[in-house]
């Protein structure tokens, strides 16, 4: 009798129940790393082809891969790690998924029940460790509860405001046997997310939108998670309301649309921040008023009434008091709003914004040395939005957010809330595992790349066609920028002594080039996109360049710093985004 | 415009002050459920003045009663965060409701032949019970509202309290809002 065909009523082990539960849940990829306490599961996986298992080089990478998979596909990402260090290594990715509301389910092995609490080999109390950074977590003590717990874990991770769920599975429990039954649904008395949106609130919102003279739609990752891009477009076009996006929201609304204001916030566009500042109605949709968006809260959108549409009641009036909250699923709520909207044309307002766009576009200084911004512009031109771009954290991330023109949802993947350096490369593994329809491009700085560069091994082992771009400025650029602007240029611990990245990539068997002149940029990107497999490009760019505009932390738009008028060198020119 | 919750409260003429709140939380009887609640308070920096947990009429449910201090806005966030926990079934801030509350205290008071009867008289006023006696001590059990328990302790202090154990608060909403 094969494992897949165990007859109904036959008792099977916890390990087999685990794997069959994943199959029943429709899991097609598992990101993991074997170890002592989950060796039984790996034994079951050994003769199964239903689930593709990607063994990363580090458990943190497995969690980021699961995040990338989830964000790119809309399906939950699944992770399997062993007890102790396996589980603790997964912590950063779990926390990252919590802050960016990404549905992942992490299964960790645990020492046998009788050893729990004994400081046993490879024991860590991962349930307690991850309690504040998971949406929910479990220790499964009895094999009879395993299948139902797995069902519930997926249910909780993917419904309401999505997030990470951890299931801890002791080794002896996984060896116990019982009859497998995977429940059709899960139910918890205290968990019943509000999705519909209160109709009275929806009507009031529509009235406010119909009456607004200077509306702005401020949209976040919730629009993408809810697959509500079409509904958002309908609202924006009916109202002729400009749309600004958070870092996570980029891709929700095409930046080619004249109503797009690009990103808002600390490194947002001048005109997006001004539009919010002068708006009389701000409609926050699936966004959470993060401090990187609001700056000084007292001075945020001072003239606006605020409508807030969000699935999470706790996100409402947490940072900013709103005039009209609507708790519900973004897509559902917007679908109800659309028929109540009138065709509007705030011509004056759009004219003002157009003026701002012309006077204060995104700009950068072009010097003799290659700049990161032009690399991103070239990439944007080469792909025309038809790629999934995964960024890391820091200057290159902000430049990509500014200069890469995202056109489609689920093509922008980045670590926003937690700001996890080292995110991009492993997240790209998950993206490539889940999406074969578009080129997958991982962009990192030289600092972030080295936080998880061991994953080059995974990429090449599984022949994942990831285009790996390093924007190398030899610095931890964003920290250097802060030291430059706010700490008297005292560059403390930010200069990087880097390896030869091209040789490093080649050591993994990855074709690699170094690009240091602007003539090479376009051809190198084309070559990378044309290549079938993984491809590595190191872009050697100007060492000291700052991201502008910038609203210093905790300040208002009045303090917004624009690109300095003074040129860095006499031969420099100003280039618009 | 008042954007922060605090500024908006002030603009409405509401006094922004910290108040004691009694929050009653019904949770599913699951591993770690109480831990999640106290962990939430710790992680978000909310203080706990007292907490109790115990069974209810439904064996699958426990009632957690937490006394906390905070501005209205903070308390609103606390209740939202508590509701967000998967194990939480219901959160009731009893403070603005009519409710009954009880605490229990055990006091081991030093006695002499001269003070014993006076102590017992005071205990009687508070309807406290003698639960243990030795030549040099009396152990008293007092129950009541926090105020009453406070007053009882205060009255016993001059006799020297050798040891004290006090529970957190338990509370239930009143059904009738008239005089009880």
Question: Overview of this structure, please?
Answer:
The complex is a heterodimer of chains A (577) and B (180). Chain A has 577 residues and is α/β, with parallel strands linked by helices. Chain A has 3 domains: 11-179, Thiamin diphosphate (ThDP)-binding fold, Pyr/PP domains (Rossmann fold, 3-Layer(aba) Sandwich); 199-359, Rossmann fold (3-Layer(aba) Sandwich), CATH 3.40.50; 363-548, Rossmann fold (3-Layer(aba) Sandwich), CATH 3.40.50. Chain A is 36% helix and 18% strand. Chain A is built from 23 helices and 22 strands. The mean pLDDT of chain A is 96. Chain B has 2 domains: 7-97, 2-Layer Sandwich (Alpha-Beta Plaits); 100-173, ACT-like. Chain A, domain 2 (Alpha-Beta Plaits). Chain B is 29% helix and 38% strand. Chain B has helices at 5-11, 33-44, 72-84, 116-125, 146-156, and strands at residues 19-28, 50-55, 61-70, 88-93, 99-110, 129-134, 137-144, 161-166, 170-173. In chain B, strands 5, 6, 7, 8 and 9 form a 5-stranded antiparallel β-sheet that branches. A 4-stranded antiparallel β-sheet of chain B has the order 2-3-1-4, with helices on one face. In chain B, strand 2 (50-55) and strand 3 form a beta hairpin. Chain B is elongated and about 65 Å long.
Can you tell me the overall shape of chain A? globular
What characterizes the major β-sheet of chain B?
5 strands, antiparallel
What are the low-pLDDT stretches of chain B, counting only 5+ consecutive residues below 50? none
Q: Give me the CATH fold name of the largest domain in chain A.
A: Rossmann fold
Strand content of chain B: 35-45%
CATH architecture call of the largest domain in chain B: 2-Layer Sandwich
CATH class of the largest domain in chain A: Alpha Beta
């Amino acid at each position: 009798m094969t494992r897949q065909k165990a007859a109904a009523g036959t008792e099977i082990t916890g390990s087999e129940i685990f794997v069959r539960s994943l199959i029943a849940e429709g899991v097609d990829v598992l990101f993991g790393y074997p170890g002592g306490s989950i060796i039984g599961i790996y034994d079951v996986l050994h003769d199964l082809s239903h689930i593709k298992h990607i063994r990363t080089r580090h458990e943190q990478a497995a969690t980021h891969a699961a995040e990338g998979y989830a964000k790119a596909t809309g399906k939950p990402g699944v992770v399997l790690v062993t007890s102790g260090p396996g589980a603790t290594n997964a912590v950063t990715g779990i926390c990252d998924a919590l802050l960016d509301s990404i549905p992942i389910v992490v299964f960790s092995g645990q020492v046998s029940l009788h050893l729990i609490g004994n400081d046993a080999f490879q024991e860590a109390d991962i349930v307690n460790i991850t309690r504040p950074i998971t949406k929910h977590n479990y220790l499964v003590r009895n094999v009879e509860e395993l299948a139902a717990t797995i069902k519930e874990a997926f249910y909780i991770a993917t419904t309401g405001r999505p997030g990470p769920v951890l299931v801890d599975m002791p080794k002896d429990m996984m060896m116990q046997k019982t009859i497998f039954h995977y429940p059709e649904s899960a139910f918890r008395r205290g968990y019943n997310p509000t999705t519909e949106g209160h109709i009275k609130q929806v009507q009031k919102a529509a009235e406010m939108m119909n009456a607004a003279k200077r509306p702005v739609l401020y949209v976040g990752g919730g629009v993408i998670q809810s697959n509500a891009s079409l509904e958002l477009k309908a609202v924006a076009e009916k109202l002729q309301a400009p749309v600004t996006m958070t870092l996570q929201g980029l891709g929700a609304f095409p930046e080619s649309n004249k109503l797009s204001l690009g990103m808002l916030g600390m490194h947002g566009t001048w005109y997006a921040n001004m539009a919010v500042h002068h708006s009389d109605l701000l409609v926050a949709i699936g966004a959470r008023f993060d401090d990187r968006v609001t700056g000084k809260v007292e001075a945020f959108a001072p003239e606006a009434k605020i409508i807030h549409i969000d699935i999470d009641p706790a996100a409402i009036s947490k940072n900013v008091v709103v005039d009209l909250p609507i708790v519900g699923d973004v897509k559902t709520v917007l679908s109800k709003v659309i028929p109540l909207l009138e065709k509007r044309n705030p011509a004056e307002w759009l004219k003002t914004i157009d003026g701002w766009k012309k006077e204060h576009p995104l700009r950068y200084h072009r010097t003799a040395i290659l700049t990161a911004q032009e690399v991103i512009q070239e990439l944007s031109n080469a792909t025309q939005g038809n790629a999934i771009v995964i960024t890391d954290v820091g200057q290159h991330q902000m430049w990509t957010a500014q200069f890469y023109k995202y056109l489609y949802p689920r093509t922008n993947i980045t670590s926003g809330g937690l700001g996890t350096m080292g995110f991009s490369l492993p997240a790209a593994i998950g993206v490539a595992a889940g999406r074969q329809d578009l080129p997958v491009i991982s962009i990192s700085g030289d600092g972030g790349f080295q936080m998880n560069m061991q994953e080059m091994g995974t990429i090449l082992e599984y022949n994942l066609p990831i285009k790996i771009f390093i924007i190398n400025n030899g610095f931890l650029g964003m920290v250097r920028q802060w030291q430059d602007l706010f700490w008297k240029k005292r560059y403390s611990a930010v200069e990087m002594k880097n390896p030869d990245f091209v040789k490093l990539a080649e050591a993994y068997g990855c074709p690699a080039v170094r690009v240091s002149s602007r003539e090479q940029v376009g051809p190198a990107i084309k070559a990378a996109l044309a290549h079938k497999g993984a491809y590595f490009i190191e872009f050697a760019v100007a060492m000291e360049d700052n991201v502008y505009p910038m609203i210093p932390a905790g300040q208002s738009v009045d303090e917004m710093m624009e690109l300095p008028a003074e040129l860095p060198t006499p031969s420099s020119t100003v280039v618009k985004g | 415009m008042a954007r922060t919750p605090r500024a908006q409260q002030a603009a409405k003429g509401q006094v922004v002050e910290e108040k004691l709140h009694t929050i009653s939380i019904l949770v599913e009887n699951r591993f770690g459920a109480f831990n999640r609640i106290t962990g939430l308070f710790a992680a978000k920096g909310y203080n706990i003045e007292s907490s109790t947990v115990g069974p209810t009429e439904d064996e699958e449910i426990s009632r957690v009663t937490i006394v906390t201090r905070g501005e209205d806005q903070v308390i609103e966030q606390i209740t939202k965060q508590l509701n967000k926990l998967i194990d939480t079934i219901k959160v009731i801030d009893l403070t603005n409701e009519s409710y009954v509350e009880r605490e229990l205290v055990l006091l081991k008071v030093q006695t002499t032949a001269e003070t014993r009867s006076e102590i017992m008289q005071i205990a009687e006023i508070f309807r406290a019970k003698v639960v243990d006696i030795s030549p040099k001590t009396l152990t008293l059990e007092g129950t009541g509202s926090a105020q009453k328990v406070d007053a009882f302790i205060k009255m016993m202090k001059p006799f020297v309290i050798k040891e004290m154990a006090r529970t957190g608060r338990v509370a239930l909403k009143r059904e009738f809002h008239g005089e009880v």
